[in-house]
Structure formats: C-alpha cells, structure tokens
Amino acid sequence: MTTQQADSATCPVTGARFSADSPEIATDFDVHSPAVADVAYERYAAMRAERPVAHSDLYGGHYVLTRYEDIHDVCRNPGVFSSESVNVPGSIGQDGPMIPIEVDPPDHTTYRQIITPLFSPKRMRAMEDHILEIVTELLDAMEGKEQVDFLNDFAKPLPTRVFLAMMGWPQEHAEQFHEWVDVIVLGVPGASEEEAMEARMGAAMQVYAYFAEMMDERDEQDVPEDDITQILLDGSFGDRDLTQFEILNILFLLLIAGLDTVKGALCHSVIYLAEHADQRHQLAEDPDVIPAAVEELLRYESAVIPARVVKEDVVVGDVQLRAGDKILIPFGAANRDPEVFEEPDEVDFTREPNPHLAFGAGPHRCVGSHLGRLELRIAFEELHRRFPDYRLDPDRPPVRHMSQIKGVASLHLLLGPA
Amino acid sequence: MTDRSRITIDRDFCAGHGRCYTLAPAIFEPDDDGFPVVVAGADDAATEAALDRARRNCPERAVQVADA
C-alpha cells in the first residue's frame, strides 16, 4: 500500500506527476492576447520557474513549454511531436497543409530537398546586391526627415520586396501583400475568434488566387526564369511533377513565414537599439560586430511561437501528454532560459556560446534562415552607417503585438542625436 | 592542433543552420544546399578557437571533435 499524497503521486513507470487537468500546471497564457505582448518574457520566466510544462484550456486546450531543453527535444523528434498543425487555433486560413512545415518525414524530406536549395547560402549571396539596393532605396527616402514610420517605411517593405524579387513578381504589388499578410497572421485585433477566422480565410483565398494568376502568366509567357516560381513550376516530387495545389501551399508558407518574421526582428531590434545608444554606436563604428549582434538580437526577441501535435503518449518533464494533444513551443521562451543563457534578459553582443533557437531546430529548421540573417545584416549595416542616431518618438511609443509571430504594430522614430 | 580527420558533422542531426561555416570558415564550407563540409583542421590558436565556437554554437550539437 502506498502512502504517497494524491497531489504528488508519481507514476512509477513514466515518472509523470501531472496531466492536463492538474491544477498545479494550469496557465491562462493566451498567445493571441494583446495584454501579453509587453510582458511575454516575464510570463515565460514565471511559467518556466513554476510550471515549465503548463496547460491552458484556451483554443481547445494546449500545453505551453518554456524550457530550452524541452523545446529543443520537441523540435528534434518530429515522429512524436508532429507539425501536421502548427497553429493555435488550428488554422490561419490555409487550404490544405502548409508545405513543408505541416508535413512530417518522410514526405517532408522530399519537399525540403526541393525547397532548401532555393534558400541556400550560395543563392542568397547572389541576392546580396539586390537586397542592398532595396535597403539603400528605402533609407534614401528617410534622408532629411526628422521623424520616420520605421514599420511602414522600412520594416514592412524590405522583406516584401525581397520576397517579390525572389519570386519574380512585380514590386508594385508589395502594398497588397502587406494587407493580406497582416490579416492572415494577426487576424482582426479585437474581433471574435469567428470573425478573425472568416477574415483570415478571405485573405488567404485572395492570396491563392494571386499565386494562381502569377503561375498562369508564367505558363502563357513560357519564358524560363531562374526565380522560385519557375523552379517550383518545373519541380518534381519523386518521379512526378509538383501539383498546383502543392505549389500554392509552398508559396503560402513562404509568404507568411518570410515577411512578418523579418519585419518583427527588424522592429524589435530597432526598439532595443534606439534605447541603448552605446550598443547602437558600436554597430555604427565597428560593423564587424553586426553578425554577432544579429544573432544576439534574434535570441533576445525570437518572433516565432509554433505549435506541434503529440502523436503518442509521452512524458515531458513530469507531465503526461496524450496522443492528439497540442503543444505551443515559443522559441522566445527557449532563448531566455537561464539554464542555457547566462543573464538571459541582457543583450550581450559578445555572448558565447549562443546556440539560440530563433530559427527552430531539427528537420523543420527555418528554411529562410540564411535569407533572414542576410536581410538583417545588410539592414543593420546600412541603417547604422547612415543613421547612427535615432530614438523612439516619445509622443508615439512603439506598440507590440502577440500572435504566433510576435511583432510590432507601430514604431515611430526620431532621427538624429537627442 | 586538431587534425581534419577528428572533426565530423553528425548528419543525423545537422539541419543546415550554417553556424559552423559562418564562425569557422577556414574549417567548414557550405555545400550547394547549405550543409557543411569539413575542409580543413585547426592548426593554430585562432582556428582552434573558431572550431570551438562552431562546436558550442551549433543548435543541433552536430559538430563533433574526437579526442586526440
């Protein structure tokens, strides 16, 4: 006969002490709540200390993991932690699985063999001059101004125009893309879950229609180009051609993963640097520091908060997870874990080592990581070379937002020394 | 001094982050898809330090240096 207390009963086989309905691990963390945006890292720290495998009843119920080791394990075990659905709630309006993130091995491996080379360091090096041109053009427009809307004048157009260039689509469509992506990623702030989903699905339909149009134009022109659209149109899965449905779902993922992520990283970094003149001046005076600064700022503010689906009963920490459970794995929580990063809430450009998970880990490692790093490096080099001094506009303080891509909804700067 | 033969990439875990060839470009180079290839060993204090940074910064812990 056991004398263990009910509240500390440990399963002798698995070591699990808690399950989804245990009050000891309950949290009300809401990844979509605007109220969380300014306190997300405090919330993660509290959860990590008290309930590193927490459970929320929101959005049909899901776990929230906050330890680096747990999130790292989840990323690297796609057989147990499937990415067949990476969103909470389960859809952002996509029609079919987003490829390749919402596909598990072995099919995932085949898709990645098509998509990974599109974003290889070699292809990215070939993009470098073009990215510099776009950055230069955007910064030229900021010259002579005392106030700038950094979000709309720089952080939004840069990744969108790079994306359009890589696709081989017209640059003047950038504005339309911003509207679509904002709705798909953010839903409709303040609206009900149902209204937000309806808006997302509407925007997604328009995106698919646009993609289909761009593909049709390619067929008519019959002009082979070395851009992503053409490579996918010519692409094959094993011994068959990629279907239009597959190509649309690849493009959809590239769109939502490639724009708001870079936008968020640019804005988060600039908010930090605006308030830390010494470190900002270091970037201006010694550009060799910038690659390390990019890594550290990516660690400090990691935008992506993906989900996974548990495929078999498994114990994480001391919690029993069941097949079918959804878990949220905020990369930003992993990257502030004091078990791995000393003084995790400090930005230290000399941090060593810095094995951050801003781009995830395992087979679903962000396929655009080389592009993201390149965009951030060039942006930081040019911005700080030309505008070594800027500060937050005290009359219009920055506004952060949540969603599964944590970001910034408003960022106004005053240029020049204070 | 770390001979090239002692440096390996664990292909089961390498996901092509590229930290190794960024931090230790004398030792690692990217292939066409962005996965690293070991091209040299470390033969002075600077490359030894770079190799150690590459090993410690790999998010997949896939850079391995065998004992001499």
From TrEMBL, chain A:
Gene3D superfamilies: Cytochrome P450. The keyword Iron applies. Keywords: Heme, Iron, Metal-binding, Monooxygenase, Oxidoreductase. Coiled coil: none annotated. It comes from Nocardioides zeae. This is Cytochrome P450. PROSITE patterns: CYTOCHROME_P450. Belongs to the cytochrome P450 family.
TrEMBL record, chain B:
It comes from the Bacteria. Pfam families: Fer4_15 (PF13459). The lineage of its organism: Bacteria, Bacillati, Actinomycetota, Actinomycetes, Propionibacteriales. Gene3D superfamilies: 3.30.70.20. SUPFAM superfamilies: 4Fe-4S ferredoxins. This is Ferredoxin. Its cofactor is [3Fe-4S] cluster. Signal peptide: none annotated. One of its GO terms (molecular function) is 3 iron, 4 sulfur cluster binding. Transmembrane segments: none annotated. Keywords: 3Fe-4S, Electron transport, Iron, Iron-sulfur, Metal-binding, Transport.
